[in-house]
Amino acid sequence: MEPTIVRIQREADIYIALSAGRRLAGELQFNENDRTRIEICILELGHNLIRHAGGGEILISSVYRDQATTGIVVEARDQGPGIPDIELAMRDGYSTTHSLGAGLPGVRRLMDEFQIHSTPGVGTMVRAVKWRSMRRY
Predict the structure, then answer these.
(1) Which of 38, 42, 87, 103 has the fewest CB atoms within 10 Å distance of its CB?
(2) Which are the contacts of 119, defined by CB distance < 8 A and separation ≥ 6?
(3) Sheet containing 113-119: which strands, arranged edge to edge?
(4) How far apart are CA 37 and CA 81, in angstroms?
(5) Predicted TM-score of the model (pTM)
(6) pLDDT bracket for residue 97 (50, 70, 90)
(7) Helix ranges, the chain (H)
């Protein structure tokens, strides 16, 4: 399945990405709680793209770990200013925009895998995965 890539430049773009994530989560039969976690991830990463990088893109795709496990990958990429101190940015309550500072730490808690790479002056990539067992008991 081809990934969905949504260019994020304004608030409405986030909801296009959200819709794509919701659709894929439904196709992959994620339960309602995990669908909500995936949606929050997309919202948080989308808002971060606009707030901190002036835009970027969100990639949403399915991934398979083995024959019994599927997942959704949400990846946010930008060519913004980068994050000079990732450890600080990952602390609950830390914010450079006077928000609650729950975005990146919250995404890390909601998803099963979380990676962030950033180079000041070049940009940032955040990749989060939510897994679902396809076994039926």
Answers:
(1) 87
(2) 82
(3) 4-8, 56-66, 69-77, 123-133, 113-119
(4) 27
(5) 0.89
(6) low
(7) 11-27, 32-53, 86-89, 103-110
